[in-house]
Specification:
Elements (H helix, E strand, L loop, with lengths): L2 H15 L2 H8 L4 H25 L5 H19 L5 H10 L2 H13 L4 H29 L2 H14 L1 H8 L4 H34 L2 H20 L3 H8 L6 H22 L4 H21 L2 H29 L1 H29 L1 H13 L1 H22 L1
Length: 391
């Protein structure tokens, strides 16, 4: 399977969808608290994805898993056309499409060559696909109603099935759909037979020293991010009165990320320091944009944040996959859990303290990750030295 082509429609559609639920809620007169809850439900779907798909991908036919992931993208988007189903729709669109991502990650790990370079190539390519999706979203929400644009995305997801059929090597589209449905049944059987084992094995993973320090690192990082990023759409509406520019902001972020993914891939885990400094600068600019009500500064925040994310994400992906697929999955589990908790309380925090003070707290929390990074790198070096001495 070609993991690059496999991820392209997935990234384009989900990028175009990414801000739709929040825009729908804001158009209904909702505010920061509802946006925080919405993001938490979405993240609840993401929460169990890493821990489950990373295991299930090892015991099933992966091409069927890809088919299932795409089918649920279609189902979730059609659910989103009904406002009463907006919350279950974001859960579906968070949980099931991750199967495609984990198959792509597993395929990369199995291939020969530099893991860092392979991840860099993948992220740069799918980053461009994400940018195309955001551009589609920007155009769509400005020329169509939100309901109309959601239907367009659901139709595009349906049209992506022929591409998926070709990538996974199936004979025809009907067989792809059938395989995706059968895979869901297999997943249900596997889940209920394995859930007890997952509960038992997770503590064993947490006792591994390198994994534990990585998990703690991800938790603090995600708590800080969870206060800020779910509420940026709300900030655009209530502070800048320009909510439909969210796709343009995200497009700037995606393009700047994609431009530096190859460099980040070559640096592998060593690029975090550079990403850390850039992210601190980005948060400072964000705070100034709120203080002065300056839209240009707000756009600059997205530009610098995007560059920083390439280096930060490459560190997380490389470090997790280097230890193992299950460690990577469990690491994502803790990251998403932390992000979901912060997101759930972000609306309450903003209603109490305002955007500036809430985001300042998040920036200070992020600044402490440099100490966790240093600890993780120190333990990794000691483990590597011990392994060399044993050999």
């Amino acid at each position: 399977m070609n993991e690059l082509i496999m991820m392209m429609p997935y990234k384009v559609i989900l990028a175009a969808y990414s801000s739709l639920p929040a825009l729908i809620l804001l158009s209904m007169g909702k505010g920061a608290i509802e946006i925080g809850i919405l993001n938490s439900i979405s993240l609840f779907g993401l929460l169990f994805g890493p821990i489950l798909w990373s295991r299930f991908a090892r015991v099933t036919n992966r091409k069927y898993l890809v088919a299932m992931g795409y089918l649920w993208i279609i189902v979730g988007l059609f659910m989103l056309t009904h406002t009463a189903l907006i919350y279950p729709a974001v859960f579906v669109l968070a949980f099931f499409p991750q199967a495609v991502y984990f198959v792509a990650m597993a395929e990369i790990r199995r291939k020969e060559g530099s893991l860092g370079e392979a991840l860099g190539n993948l992220e740069q390519t799918v980053g461009l696909a994400w940018a195309v999706g955001l551009l589609l979203g920007f155009v769509g929400v400005n020329i169509l109603s939100l309901d109309q644009f959601t239907i367009v995305l659901a139709s595009l997801a349906t049209l992506s099935i022929p591409i998926v059929t070709r990538v996974i090597g199936e004979a025809n589209i009907a067989k792809t759909v059938q395989d995706g449905i059968e895979e869901l049944k297999e997943f249900e059987v596997w889940l209920f037979s394995t859930i007890g084992k997952i509960k038992i094995r997770a503590p064993q993973i947490k006792l591994e020293p390198r994994a534990f320090s990585l998990y703690l690192f991800g938790i603090v990082f995600s708590l800080s991010s969870g206060i800020i990023f779910p509420q940026l759409t709300t900030l655009l509406k209530f502070e800048f009165n320009a909510v439909k520019l969210i796709y343009m902001c995200l497009l700037i972020d995606a393009l700047s990320s994609s431009a530096f993914f190859r460099i980040a891939g070559s640096l592998r885990h060593r690029g975090y320091i550079f990403g850390y400094i850039l992210r601190l600068c980005a948060y400072s600019i964000l705070l100034l944009s709120i203080m002065w009500g300056n839209m240009l500064l707000f756009l600059s925040f997205y530009l610098i944040n995007g560059i920083s994310w390439g280096f930060i994400m490459m560190f997380f992906e490389y470090s997790g996959l280097k230890i193992g697929e299950e460690v990577f999955g469990t690491f994502l589990f803790f990251r998403v859990l932390s992000f979901a908790i912060a997101s759930a309380f972000s609306g309450i925090l903003i209603n109490s303290l305002g955007f500036f003070d809430s985001f300042l707290i998040a920036a200070i929390l992020f600044s402490t990750t440099i100490f966790l990074y240093t600890e993780f790198e120190s333990k990794s070096k000691k483990d590597a030295d011990s392994h060399t001495q044993v050999n």
